Amino acid sequence: MRIDVVSIFPEYLAPLELSLIGKARQDGLLQLNVHDLRSFTTDRHRTVDDTPYGGGAGMVMKPEPWAKALEEIVGARAGEGGAAKPILIVPSPAGERFTQSIAHELAEEEQLVFACGRYEGIDERVIEWASEHFTVRPMSLGDYVLNGGEVAVLAMVEAIGRLLPGVVGNPESLVEESHSDGLLEYPVYTKPSSWREREVPAVLLSGNHGKIAQWRRHEQFRRTAERRPDLLADFDASTLTRADREVFAELGYDVVDGRLERRVLDGDA
Ligand code: 6GU
Prior knowledge:
Largest sheet: 5 strands, parallel
Number of strands: 11
Shape: elongated
Strand order of the largest sheet: 2-1-6-5-7
Strand content: 15-25%
Low-confidence stretches: none
Bound molecules: 6-chloroguanine
């Protein structure tokens, strides 16, 4: 996969040289280029922003440097022949929510381009114009505001990059993790089995792999109900075992038409 990132703070992306993603780059599994938006300006002050039409606080990123940067990035692909439109991801708190399922989708692409806005954002005409050359996807990490797209790009590139074949040493570790099956991950323990008067749950020392698998699954149910009950609305409950249903019943959920339904308790209404 090839990834291009455009930013006025290219140094912000330096952590992508470390750890698994850094190794993936060295191994040639991921080709990652970071571009300084200011190198696409033509004035002496290397201006990338200006005041907003219509007034208001803050500054808006000017269209010309963005067009030059994005043209150079797509232009570099001219002649590659038959390649699909690259995806242009525009990090923004006003974007679609980035999820594990979108990370999987994007990991299948040949090329991703990330356009890091700062200030109040990029002139909207850049987004319109770019859709001629790219599939544009405004993306948000969650419902809070960062100062710019760089930190969000670090998160998205790591989430996508670790899904590329060969990046994570043991691909099995991608299967049993939070959000891989619509549930949060179960708690984990290591030695010593007794630590500051706290014991590792006995089932994990039992050697009974069936029991261990069931305990872990039920811990996933408990955690998800406690921390992220919103995830349970999309959970496919049609294949739950009797023991599974009993755990959900304790947590206040019934299975109705293959879906989990929160039981209405007396006094809730
Ligand atoms: Cl992707 N960008 C910015 N600036 N703020 C955010 C975000 C992205 N996701 C959540 N907050």
